[in-house]
Specification:
The structure is a homodimer. By secondary structure, chain A is of the alpha/beta class. The first copy, chain A, folds into three domains: 40 residues, no CATH class; 121 residues, Rossmann fold (3-Layer(aba) Sandwich), CATH 3.40.50.2300; 142 residues, Response regulator (Rossmann fold, 3-Layer(aba) Sandwich). Chain A is 45% helix and 17% strand. In chain A, strands 2-1-3-4-5-11 form a six-stranded parallel sheet, with helices on both faces. A six-stranded mixed sheet of chain A has the order 7-6-8-9-10-12, with helices on both faces. In chain A, β1, α5 and β2 form a beta-alpha-beta unit. In chain A, 53% of the residues are buried. Chain A binds a DNA duplex through α2 and α4. Chains A, B: It comes from Isoptericola hypogeus. Chains A, B: GO terms for molecular function: DNA binding.
Amino acid sequence: MTTTAPRRRASISDVARLATVSVGTVSNVLNRPDRVSPATRERVLAAIGELDFVPNGSARQLRAGTITTAGAIVLDIANPFFTDVARGIEDRLDEAGYTLMLASSDENPEREARYLRLFEEHGVQGVMVVPSGPDVQHLEALRSRGLRVVLLDRPSPVETLSSVAVDDRAGAAAAARHLVDLGHERIAFLNGPHTIRQCADRAEGLRAALVDAGLDPGEALVEVTITALNADGGQAGTEQVLALDDRPTATMCVNDLAALGALRTLRAAGVPVPSGMAVVGYDDVAFAGELATPLTSVRQPTHQLGYRAADLLLDPDDSAAHVTFQPELVVRESTTGTG
Amino acid sequence: MTTTAPRRRASISDVARLATVSVGTVSNVLNRPDRVSPATRERVLAAIGELDFVPNGSARQLRAGTITTAGAIVLDIANPFFTDVARGIEDRLDEAGYTLMLASSDENPEREARYLRLFEEHGVQGVMVVPSGPDVQHLEALRSRGLRVVLLDRPSPVETLSSVAVDDRAGAAAAARHLVDLGHERIAFLNGPHTIRQCADRAEGLRAALVDAGLDPGEALVEVTITALNADGGQAGTEQVLALDDRPTATMCVNDLAALGALRTLRAAGVPVPSGMAVVGYDDVAFAGELATPLTSVRQPTHQLGYRAADLLLDPDDSAAHVTFQPELVVRESTTGTG
DNA sequence: TCAGCGTTTTGAATCGTTTCATAGCGTAGG
DNA sequence: CCTACGCTATGAAACGATTCAAAACGCTGA
């Protein structure tokens, strides 16, 4: 193995000099090989190999103006829901020869803005974003500057931005109806802050379903806000719920990771599931069915969600489109079991 | 909400014209505000705001030569192990004001090469890679062209490349010793292809531990190669194992996702765990302890792994460093239970 | 031999920044 | 009143590619 010391990167003119042609010809070999005679092409390719030449993307892009790259920003890359969505995006972009730059905002609008700026500065074709706040003006501004923008996992609050979403109200409502049908009349909801639209929507769907069932949400619903939308958050929230005077008989969680934390905490506290406390998750991630107490959860078409988002981003038709998928309640023993 | 039609992106000279200064001054406002008089600065900033000016990153980079971005390529972004590593990387880069471009190679060397090229063309400072094949010459070539390269999750096979890894032989050996101590004398190993170094190392560690215990690996070890290192792969592999004439009494899995598939398949086949078949996973992901049969698994310091990798990448010292972490066996009921 | 034509190659202009040598300007000191 | 100096601001060069009008080349047929 040879250990060459780093040297200056070869440029197209270095190649041209070595192959004794002009830079224009080298560029043609790279981009329109058919316009170059075979002999010249050979010579240029040899020089490229010799020098380990890799074209400078910045220069290319500066001149050509555009690249086949898209960006995506999700809330948390460690959450399987978002990685499944990301896979859907990647698969669709791959078909079109595009590449994806992925980043996670940590629900932090400042980080979101930083990554958006990075993407814009580097001239991506467009971005897919799970907004970390209710305000989408900055995204509309981005669109007006010529980038394609697709809102991920939330219906667009403005006409002009395309969006792909799952009906969160329907999902939460289905879960709530299921619990009410089982006789629960007091339900805890470990939810994220309402600044995240999905969280607000789910709270609303849950509330509406309770009203439909003739219950007073003020009585029947205890919403606990958790800041970390993961297992740790679920644990903290469940500890709060267990400390309540009039303890609910069921807990809905904003996602399956939080439900994992809830189950862990309930087990530690010796509360049986579901007889002591029914638990419902959200997302139906891969392991939901394999837990000690298999988890009732709301399944979302994650892969499709990402795939379709990328589809909209690539669509040459410039008009905004809005796609909504329907979620599906998957019932398991964390609500119907005998434990 | 106003809906401005996309117009041409403003450039620094548009700003200069509007503020009636030279382009150099605008650049100074952007990069060395203290060298510009407050009055001029104000005027320029107003023009920037007016025009929605966002500097062109390609042009900047072309001239300045470098950006504070690093790339990472993992095998599968849907695998919690890799996303935890990615979080570690992100956290360290964030401290240094760097941003991360993340991609997954799908264990496909061609995809890996494509992303490496993309990263290089865009002038990242360096890349962290979980190589998808045994050959690292292309990475050494990258390094010789001036990029910083850190191998992720595998010890470097060459001196010149920095690496961060967990001792895979030790992890597999610890798991094997545990199984042998429990009396198992025939062990199935659902492993990935040996072209992936971790897989080869784990097979070797397992084999060595069996020899140490006085067993003949030819007899005691049944290695089943699975192509998908996830739950589906685990399911397929387990089906093969169950069809064997002389059925092993324990199954080691290359990761927890595969173990999830194994547990699912065993349950479907009515094979009790661990009395009918003990199961060991690898990675100790968040849900491992919460499964129907809590999973014995090899814990790796994932977050640290990523954090340290980014650390090496940022280290101004150019010499190659090699960091190895030790894994830890976490024993649960999938091997010691009464099921 | 030369005009005419199609193919291949050339080289200068261009993209939007940063950088840096230099010019302009106001002020303090002699 | 002139010089020197410190601030600011200027504007051209440079980064490394693509693009395209024009030149060079190689043939064919008269």
